[in-house]
Amino acid sequence: MGGKWRVAVRTPVGACSAVLIVVVGALAVLAPIVWGAGAEATDTTAIQAGPSAAHLLGTDSLGRDILLRVLVATRLSVGLAVTATLIGLVAGVLLGIAPSVLPRRLGRLVTSAVGIAVAFPALLLALFLAVIFGVGMQGAVLAIGLAGAPSFARLTQTLAASVAGRDFVAAARVAGVGRLRLMTRHILPNIGEPLVVNATIGAGGALLAFAGLSFLGIGVQAPDYDWGRLLGDGLDRIYTNPAAALAPGVAVVVVGLAFNLFGETAAAMLGTRTRRLRPAKPAEPAEPAVRRSPARPVRDAPVLAVEDLRVAFGPVTPVRGVSFTIGAGEAVGMVGESGSGKSLTALALSGLVEQPGTVTAGRLEFLGTPLPGAPQREVRRLLGSSLAMVFQDPVASFNPTQRVGRQLAEVSEQHQGLSRRAALGRAVDRLRAVRVTEPERRARQYPHQFSGGMLQRAMIGMGLMASPRLIVADEPTTALDVRVQREVLRLLSGVRASEGAAILLISHDISVIAQTCDRVLVMYAGRIVEDMPAARLREGARHPYTRALLASVPDMDTDLDRPLTVIPGRPPEPDRMPPGCAFAPRCPRAADRCRSEDPELSRSEHRVACWHPDERSGGPA
Fold it and tell me: Which domains does the chain have, with CATH numbers?
């Protein structure tokens, strides 16, 4: 960071802003000390005198030196502008985060009020508020600060919305972090820089607004004085001694320019910030291929029971009646093309579907607790302590402003009541358990200092901070190379064997599912079209879509001289679902019944939703 600032101040704009800020800061501190007495001294022999050797800019109506008063007024003028800006920033941030932490109706009311306030020019709003708060320095500070709050509130809302969709926020929500802590620990630190940059630029506007109020007689009152008041006093003599009015006016312009140039320099520096280069990681020894862990006995009560799960966004329903169960220690794979509803199903199970999305289910139980209708605090505690989520992008899954160890420790602090030191110690232990090298040192590092595979291990370690009964891994290997993919899959299998946790592995790669899971759920167009044991997948798949997915995966025996097998056509859009079977337009076995009636999943160990399943691998559906 220091190096980037040094580079920034070497540019013409950066150097100019740095010099101006240093000069203004020095004047604000030293001018009242050095020239304070001289600015108050009266010279009765030179009342309203013009510029001279004794008084370079002349004197006022009491014979006081105008130049010294302009210099001394730097502290009050700049101090009031900075104070007003801080008030606007704090009030704006509070209004900006209010919709995220308040009840929905009250949050919408705050958002509407901010929108109305933003429509008014800030200076007119400041004049209106100054009349309400009363004439004087205090009223003017409050008026200008609150007049600037709506713009900061709108900026905060926009920035927070852009961060709220990141995976590390979702991970914190799954871990049971409350909304207020989520905002203060995970969202605000990631939007602080643009807010500070805009506050720096806004300080110039606050300085101008304050000078305007004082010029009109609403702001600073005698015997205090700022540049606006000096400008008003000197305007009466603009034709006899222009310097009396020009000096405070120039001071306002120069200091306002200093604030704006400094803000532009900071914005340019932050805008061109590049990601730090990660040191190359030494190649790790190759490991044997991933093997399916022996299935643990499934108890009578499933870890997760889902019946007729639906996720809707208004009239569009991307997930349409999904039903399945996961037993204790069982590894279940969910596979399908992009847009089939896999990830949305996982988000619904984890309570991460936001408005305007709605989740309904005939049955949605986790560890015997019905999730819909249960108290939010109880659901958050249950999911935070017994459900672990591993997201697709390990880089986006961690808060870039916090050390990795602190992020892992937050889970134990929230749900196990551990002290900060004890939680950090457990975080180090969990990093060691997922084979992160030098866990004590790694826990003190930031996410950008980790490789992608190491971050994915740390993400799994975060899930192990409590005692998870179910690990939902949503495309955990997509962003990783083949070698690291194998390591992560082996790690998940090892966690399953050692912790007894069930796994729901979501992937578009049917080969990965076949190697690591006990059971396979094939999704298409928001529905499960086949549910079967993974051991029978290669030879026993019955749905035409499942067989098409298997045929599209090349292997060592694939003829390289022939084009790769592809599934013709495209999946239907959720808002344009065809009548009958959604796969019928792409299916070579489709008949008239397929285009008019939607088949239901059969009720057997091998469930398939098809009117004409492949009969080579079993009896009728």
Answer: 2-271 (1.10.3720.10), 541-555+564-621 (no CATH)
